[in-house]
């Protein structure tokens, strides 16, 4: 991993993992380790997100509203979808890693029982959960200047072009190849943190 930059930041970072992922995912762990290496291990939260969208949003709102420092976000896949909603709602800066754009449409394939890749925990997705997810859509971005999009064209799970189109007014980094996990994510952390550390435009 690259040596963390000496950044004059004093924010609390909330990392939001993707669907069927967990705080144990590679990107979550290296992001946490990066903060620790900068001496800011107490300034990152990586919650295990409930599979129920309304519950996930409620928990993240509670975390954000409890902070005394400014809050910034990194969201991967479904976490990027949630991060978009939160960034718009609270005027936060956010980095979105291969974000889901229309996850409610994809969740129809997951109706019924599912199993978390990391914990093995089984849970059910219902039509109500799909509707909860759909209600979080932000078809128009009012503060795109607060968003950093990172996508790789080799994403085998999501169509990267949907994200490129949706976030066309945001700062974007588009890399050829790669995959949904975002190959060599560690190398992007200095750029991500520089963006997040910039002045919030609220």
Explain briefly what this protein structure is.
The protein is α/β, with parallel strands linked by helices and 202 residues long. The protein is built from seven helices and eight strands. The protein has a single domain (12-197), classed as Alpha/Beta hydrolase fold, catalytic domain (Rossmann fold, 3-Layer(aba) Sandwich), CATH 3.40.50.
Explain how this protein is built.
The chain has helices spanning 26-37, 53-65, 78-90, 103-107, 127-134, 160-166, 189-197; strands at residues 12-16, 44-45, 71-76, 93-97, 112-115, 122-125, 147-152, 171-175. A six-stranded parallel β-sheet has the order 2-1-3-4-7-8, sandwiched between helices. A two-stranded antiparallel ribbon has the order 5-6. The chain contains seven helices and eight strands; from the N terminus they run E-H-E-H-E-H-E-H-E-E-H-E-H-E-H. The protein has a single domain (12-197), classed as Rossmann fold (3-Layer(aba) Sandwich). Strand 5 (112-115) and strand 6 (122-125) form a beta hairpin. The chain is 33% helix and 18% strand. With 202 residues, it is α/β, with parallel strands linked by helices.
Largest sheet: 6 strands, parallel
- Taking Cα atoms only, what radius of gyration do you get, to the nearest Å? 16 Å
Strand order of the largest sheet: 2-1-3-4-7-8
Oligomer: single chain
Strand content: 15-25%
- What separation lies between the terminal Cα atoms? 32 Å
How many strands? 8
CATH superfamily, by name, is Alpha/Beta hydrolase fold, catalytic domain
Discrete helix count: 7
Number of domains: 1
Which percent range fits the helix content? 25-40%
CATH topology: Rossmann fold
């Amino acid at each position: 991993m690259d040596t963390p930059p000496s950044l004059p930041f004093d924010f609390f970072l909330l990392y939001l993992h993707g669907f069927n992922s967990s705080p144990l995912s590679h990107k979550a762990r290296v992001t946490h380790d990066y903060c620790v290496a900068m001496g800011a291990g107490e300034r990152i939260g990586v919650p295990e997100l409930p599979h129920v969208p309304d519950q996930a949003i409620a928990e993240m709102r509670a975390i954000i509203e409890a902070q005394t420092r400014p809050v910034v976000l990194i969201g991967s896949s479904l976490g990027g979808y949630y991060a978009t909603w939160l960034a718009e709602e609270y005027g936060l800066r956010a980095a979105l890693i291969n974000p889901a754009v229309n996850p409610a449409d994809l969740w129809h394939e997951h109706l019924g029982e599912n199993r978390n890749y990391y914990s093995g925990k089984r849970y059910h997705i219902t039509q109500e959960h799909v509707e909860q997810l759909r209600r979080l859509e932000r078809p128009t971005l009012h503060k795109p200047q607060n968003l950093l999009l990172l996508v790789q064209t080799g994403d085998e799970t999501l169509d990267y072009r949907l994200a490129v189109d949706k976030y066309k007014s945001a700062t974007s980094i588009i890399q050829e190849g790669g995959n949904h996990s975002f190959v060599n994510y560690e190398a992007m952390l200095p750029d991500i943190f520089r963006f997040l550390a910039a002045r919030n435009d609220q």
